Amino acid sequence: MRHIRCFLAVARAGSVTHAARVLNSSQPAVSRTLAEIEHIIGQPLFDRTGRGLHLTEAGQRLSRHFDIALTQIETGAAAASGGGANARVAFGLLPNVARTVAVDAVGSFKTAYPETDIALHWAGVVELIAKMARGDLDFILGRLLSPEHLQGVTFEQLYTEELLFVAHHTHPLAQPGAHPMLVDFEDQLMIVPLSDTIIRREMDKFLRARGIPPFANQIETVSFEFTRTFLRHNMAVACLPKGAIRRELSEGTLVDLGIRGDELMSSVGLSFMRDRDLSPEAELLAQHVRAASQQFHDIPDQL
């Protein structure tokens, strides 16, 4: 157990010094334990750089198995002592599903299984992938990940979703008969996704394919709450996943400006680690996610 706890602490902290603090131990003691583990395994488990320690491929595999093993040991010990904690499922949440599928799935799951705790993690894709690789997350719910993020990951498509260009219903481009085109955005304040996000890449690919240069006047954000509020009080056009604004579109507060293209379509679904089985509780939650996504199957977005 000492070796397992030490290895996982270093893997999570990325530093022997920080891990020693977490373990209430000394740096030399942690270093000796790491050396013992690597001797037992027979190969390096960390790449040592000036920026800290990073798991090797062998280290990543060991981390996934140790995470599962330690959780099972702690759960078994708690159950044997009569103080068993609630079962727990943790998943990563991308913002396009935060108001739709995730709400419905978590609500129905908690109604059926109130004794199981759920932890929702909200972060960038890179951080969520790292958490899932370490075993901190059971899966990620959201749009299809970029190819560089799919190594060791399995994606299960649930439905397809568009990126839409929208404006408040009072905006001149949102008026009946306006029929805006991409060139009409050149003199508009544009709200677009951050440059390192999946949806920004999709938007940029769409614009490049049509010879449209980057917008001259823009705000970059992935805060959909900011964007929805900003559009209520300012004349601007925004590029957003449909899932983030379904309510506003149905109410007529925001208007779809009718810009379409294959590049703006993407899959929404579940991302899992390929070599790891879900716990029974995580599989049950995934089933609720699949059921919640059914409402979007019969109303496909039109190109």
Summarize the structure.
By secondary structure, the chain is an alpha/beta fold. The chain is built from 10 helices and 11 strands. It is elongated and about 70 Å long.
Structure characterization notes:
It is built from 10 helices and 11 strands. Strands 3, 4, 5, 6, 7, 8, 9, 10 and 11 form a 9-stranded mixed beta sheet that branches. The protein has a two-stranded antiparallel ribbon with strand order 1-2. The chain has 303 residues and is of the alpha/beta class. The chain has helices at residues 2-13, 16-23, 27-41, 57-80, 101-112, 125-134, 198-209, 224-233, 246-251, 280-293, and strands at 46-49, 52-55, 88-93, 117-121, 139-143, 153-168, 190-192, 218-220, 237-241, 254-256, 265-273. Helix 7 links the parallel strand 7 and strand 8 (218-220).
Q: Element order, helices and strands? A: HHHEEHEHEHEEEHEHEHEEH
The helicity comes to 40-55%
Output the number of helix runs. Answer: 10
* Cα end-to-end separation: 56 Å
Query: Strand share of the residues?
Result: 15-25%
Cα-based radius of gyration, to the nearest Å: 23 Å
Got a strand count? 11
